[in-house]
Amino acid sequence: GDFGCSPIFIFLPHEPVDTILMKNIVPNSGILSITEITSIYPSSFADIFTKRCGPKLILPLIAQWGMKFSNDEEMDDLPSKSIQIFREILLRNVDIQKRFDEQHGIEILSFLLLSAKKKSITYQLYMSLYDIYCLLSDLSLKRKLLKMVLLNIELWIYVPGNDHLNILKNWKKELFSNELAMQSYPFQWFINIMRMHYYYTDCEPELQKSKPTDINIKTARKILLFLALEVANKKFTSKDLAFLICTITTCRDSQQQLDYLHVLNTLIIKGKQSPLLNASDSFQYLKILQYEANNKNSEIALLAMQTLCNAYRASYFTQGSDTQFDII
User: Fold this and answer.
1) Which among 58, 106, 194, 209 could bridge 144 via Cys, Cβ 3.0 to 4.6 Å?
2) Torsion of the alpha carbons at 201, 206, 212 and 217, rounded to the nearest 10
């Protein structure tokens, strides 16, 4: 009969087939492939929400952490729920990640987290963000999340006790087992944060900032010293050596001085495999350590002299350089 219109017939085979023979029995009716036909299924809420809002519009929820109900009770699960929503949207596809990066989304996220109540900044939050980091496809966004959030010491320094140590352990076992972190953070960064945040005694008010509470500082520093050596073995420059020697001679925390002297010795005694061989322009500064021989702390004095002896055996000094020593 006459349909009085130009209908389109659509069918989907129950099982995949290699070829389909179709005969058009309706005049003026086209046959279209499935790829040419707009989906007849309605978009999901997640698709619509992602398209209309995007992850950037979820970020203001972070500013509401600590918001209270009418009965004055806080919404304790708001941080976890908002991060979960943020995660689901951001990980939907790489285009969303690129757009979020172009909109300076990580910079906004970092600012809001730094502004949040300290009790909201937890190890659980860190691990949720680390999970997002692992699943990101866009390298630029991944690098920014690493630098501005996961390795932002100003953000995590207030996480207390074992939770803080667990963050440092994640740095050691996971983050810095990846080349992205290794290439992004120099040796000096570790020495700096140890001196500024993981000090033994309060003796350098002009440099020292907040330190974690309820934590074994020696255990925390052991992790950071390990990472400093790992990074040094990958890349170590003359500026790094000069910075290390300067830190040894100017730090007023004697226990820290010993730590840094041990780092230097560990690098020297690696012999032909030592990364110090790439820092020959700063070998001259090693001689400054001779003045630590007069240190009132006998342990520092002895270790400083031992370091100079090891450097001499490793041929770090040129011929005639012994005449430039005031003590030995």
Assistant:
1) 106
2) -30
